[in-house]
Amino acid sequence: MKKASIKDVAKLAGVSIATVSQIINNKKERFSDETIHKVITARNELGYIPNIAAKRLKGGTSPLIGVLIPSFRMPFFADLIQSMQVDGPENVDLVFMGANEENLETSIYSLIERGADALIFGRPIPEHQQVIEFLNKRNVPYLSLDQSADLDAKDQVMVREWQGGKMAARHLLELGHKKIALLMADDMTDNMHQREAGFIAALLEGGLHPVDNIKTNLSKHGGMMAAEKVIETGATAIFALNDEIAVGLIRGLYNHGVSVPNDISVVGYDDTDYAEFFVPALTTIRQPVQQIGIDALNMIINRLADHDLPQQNETLDLQLIVRESSIPPRVMD
Amino acid sequence: MKKASIKDVAKLAGVSIATVSQIINNKKERFSDETIHKVITARNELGYIPNIAAKRLKGGTSPLIGVLIPSFRMPFFADLIQSMQVDGPENVDLVFMGANEENLETSIYSLIERGADALIFGRPIPEHQQVIEFLNKRNVPYLSLDQSADLDAKDQVMVREWQGGKMAARHLLELGHKKIALLMADDMTDNMHQREAGFIAALLEGGLHPVDNIKTNLSKHGGMMAAEKVIETGATAIFALNDEIAVGLIRGLYNHGVSVPNDISVVGYDDTDYAEFFVPALTTIRQPVQQIGIDALNMIINRLADHDLPQQNETLDLQLIVRESSIPPRVMD
Q1: CATH number of the domain where residue A249 is located
Q2: Is residue A209 in some structural domain?
Q3: Transmembrane region positions (chains A, B) (predicted)?
Q4: Does A118 fall in a domain?
Q5: Is the dihedral of CA B232, B233, B237, B238 positive or negative?
Q6: Closest Cα to residue B19, out of B11, B175, B273, A90?
Q7: Does residue B206 lie in a domain region?
C-alpha cells in the first residue's frame, strides 16, 4: 500500500493542505472543532505519518512531558493517554507514570531530575505542597486535569461534571423513573463529587429525592459486590459513578437473576471503549477524552514556549449517549 | 485506620517477617510461587507501604526503567504495566511509553538521552538494528517480552503460547465440537502466530481441520465486524485471538440474533480484567500477567547490577479458565 501523503489527508478531510499542516502541527486556534475533528479523523483513517527527518531539520529536539495517572487499568485513563499519544501534537515525547502513593513523589523527582520538561497531573498528589515547590524551583511547568484541581496549577483542563451528573438524572426522569438510587465510590475526587451533586440537584428539580446513595469500591468488583444492596433499595434506575462500576453492577444483578434494563435501568459515566460492546450496551455520559488530551498537551506546549503566558483554562462539555441499559420503568399491575 | 506494618502482612500471609521483607525487596529466589503469591496478596489487601525514607538511607537513588508497549488501550498491556507498578519491586522508578511507529525511535532516544537506565520492550521495533546499536553503545541494558522476541535481547520473558493455543483447542474438542473456526488478526506478532499454530496442531491431533481461519482487525470493533463471516462458516465453536476480539465477536453475533454459548461457543485469550464481568463470562486462556511483570523487572535489576551476567530466560505457563461462553454443541435433530 502506498504511504498516505498530506495531500491525501487534505482531500479526505475536504480542507486545504495548509489547514492539515497547521492542525497537525498544533496551530489549531484558527480552526473550528469540526474542522479539527475532520482532519484528525482523516489522518487516523489514512495513517498519515509526517516526515520526521524534515521536522527534525527544522525544529531540533522535542520536549519530554510526563503524565501522571492513578491507574493504567482504569479505562478512562487508558483512553485518555492513548488519545494523547495518537491524536496529540507530534512534536513532543510523552512518558506516562501510574505511580502508587508510596512512590509517587520519588517517581516525579526521578523524572524531573533526568530532564523532563513539563508535567501533566491526572491524579491528586497527597503531599502536593512539597512537589509543587520542587517544580516551581526548577521552573518546570505543570498542568492539572479535573482529577487534580486542588493543585492550583496555572493551566487547567476541566469538564462540566455538574452538568454531566444532571444529564444522567434528566434522562432517567424523562424515562419516567420515580425510584432512583446512586451507586458512588468510597473515595471520590472533587470532580466525582460534582458529578454526584449535579445528579442529585437535577433529581430535586424534578421533585424527587434519591431512594438511596450507596458507596462501594471504585472498580468493577465494587460494582458487582453492591448488587444485593442495590436490589434492596427497590430502585428502578441506578446512576453508577462510572462505566466500570456500572458494568460490575450489571453482572452482579445478572448473578441475582435481576435483568438490566427490564428490571432495573443503569446509567454509567465516561463512555469507555467497551461500553458499546456490553450486552446490554451501556447508556452513559461521554467524556471528551480526545479533546482533554489534545488541549492539555497544547496548553503545556504553549506554556513551555512562554512561561509568562496568562492562565490557560478550558472547560469541556459532556454528552449523553443512550444505549440499551436504560428504558422506562415497568408499569406495575 | 492504622497504617499496616510489615508484621501485619506477615501475620495475614502466615509467614515470617523476614520472608515478607525478602519477597517485597525482590529477593524471591528461595520462595515458592505460592509463598510469593500469599505475601503479595496480603500486602495488597493491607496496602502495606515500606518506609521509603529508611530505604533511601540505605540505598541511594533508584534506577529509572522505561517500558514500551504497543497501546495503552489494549487491556493485556494495561494489566501488565499496572501489575509492574503495583506488584513489582519498589526500588525502581517506572515510566511507560505507548509510542506509535512514527515517533517510537525519537521517544526512545529522548528518554535514554535524559538518563533512563534500562528499557523493557513489550512491542516489536520496526527498525530495531539502529535502536539496538544505540542502546549497546550507551551500555543501556534492555529486555524483551514475547511480543518483541526478534530483538535478540540478552534477557527475555516468554510465555508458552503454543501450549496456550493447544489448551484452547483441547477444551473445545473435549466439549465435543467438530466444526471449529479461528478468528485471528491481520497483523500478528510472533507469539500470536505460535498461539494460532498450537491451536491448529491440537485440532489436527484430534483429527480435525479448522473449518475456517478468518482474519480481522486486532480490536473489539474487528471482532464485531467479523460476526457475519463467522456465522457463514457454520462453526459451532470459535477460538478468538484475544479477549478483545472475542468480546467484539460476541456482541456482533448478538446483533445478528446468534447467542453465545447456545448457538456458538467462543474462547478468548489473555483473561483481561473484564472477561469475568461479561454476559456471558468469557472462557479464556489466562496470561501470567503479574509474573511477567515481576520477572521482567527483577531480571533487568539483576542486569543493572551486573552487566556480565549470563543470559536470563524465563518461560511461563498459561492456564485455561472455563466460564460461560463455551459449552457442548447443540445436538442436531
Answers
A1: 3.40.50.2300
A2: yes
A3: none
A4: no
A5: negative
A6: B11
A7: yes
Boundary residue ending a domain (A245, A260, A286): A286
Which residue type is seen at A211? V
- Domain shared by B166 and B281, yes or no: yes
CATH number for the domain harbouring residue A9:
1.10.260.40
DSSP state of A62: P
Cell of B138: 550507551
Residue A279 lies in a domain: yes
Instruction: Name the residue with cell 535502536.
Output: B131
Grid cell at residue A240? 453508577
Q: Does B150 touch chain A (CB under 8 A)?
A: no
Domain closes at, from B286, B304, B323: B286
Instruction: At A153, list the grid cell.
Output: 496549577
Q: What grid cell was written down for B115?
A: 538518563
For an interface test with B, which of A43, A49, A84, A85 has the most B Cβ atoms less than 10 Å from its Cβ?
A: A85
CA B317 to chain centre: 11
Chain B: residue whose CA lies nearest to A68: B95
Q: Which is it for the CA torsion B231, B234, B236, B239, positive or negative?
A: negative
Cell matching residue B266: 467462543
Domains: count for chain B = 2
Chain A neighbors of B118, CB-CB under 8 A = none
The parent domain of residue B28 ranges over 1-57
- The SS3 of residue A97 is strand
ipTM: 0.81
The pLDDT profile of chain A, 333 residues, written as one tens digit per residue, is: 455 677 788 888 888 777 877 777 666 667 888 888 888 888 777 766 554 433 433 445 688 899 999 888 888 998 899 889 888 887 788 999 886 666 778 778 888 877 889 999 988 777 778 888 888 888 899 999 976 666 778 899 999 999 999 999 999 999 999 999 999 999 898 899 999 999 999 999 999 999 999 999 999 999 999 999 999 999 999 999 999 999 999 999 999 999 999 999 999 999 998 899 999 999 999 999 999 999 999 999 999 999 999 999 999 999 999 999 999 999 765
Q: Judging by DSSP bridges, how do beta strands B237-240 and B180-185 pair with one another?
A: parallel
Q: Cell numbers at residue B176, please?
A: 465435543
Contacts of B11 (CB under 8 A, 6+ apart): none
What tens digit of pLDDT does each residue of B60-87 get?
568 889 999 988 888 899 889 988 988 8
Q: Which of B73, B114, B274 has the CB atom closest to A114's CB atom?
A: B114
Nearest-CA residue of chain A relative to B245? A277
| Cross-chain Cβ contact A97/B96 below 8 Å | yes
pLDDT tens profile B44-56? 777 665 543 334 3
Cross-chain Cβ contact B114/A115 below 8 Å:
yes
